[in-house]
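Please, structure for the following, as tokens.
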Amino acid sequence: LIEGTVVPLGDNASLELLQKNILPNPNSKMHSIQLSNGMLLAAYNHHKYKLRQRSNLFISTSADRGKTWQVVAKLEQKFAPLTMHHYPTLLQAGCKVYVVYSDHMHGIRIATLKLDFK
């Protein structure tokens, strides 16, 4: 079990995201939360398992409890030697989501996403 693959849901249930089958992830830590509108949000390294890279850091949402996902933000997309953006953590505050993650060469980064619940 990879850290961050179990999402607590508001109905006292939980959902385990099978990264290799649902979201392209190279067996690295991801973080998922249930938003206040009931949708799921995931931050993860968007790579096929074989590549074992941690450079692409994407944010995706799911309206059907993890069956399908839509990429809503691409925080990092640099594919170069020693480029790693990993260990994301999500926090919702009102209509914003904060994404805190590690940049291997530059320390900690924080990104802010504005939510649109239309």
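Strands lie at 6-8, 14-16, 31-34, 40-45, 57-62, 70-76, 85-93, 96-103, 107-114. The two ends are 34 Å apart (CA to CA).
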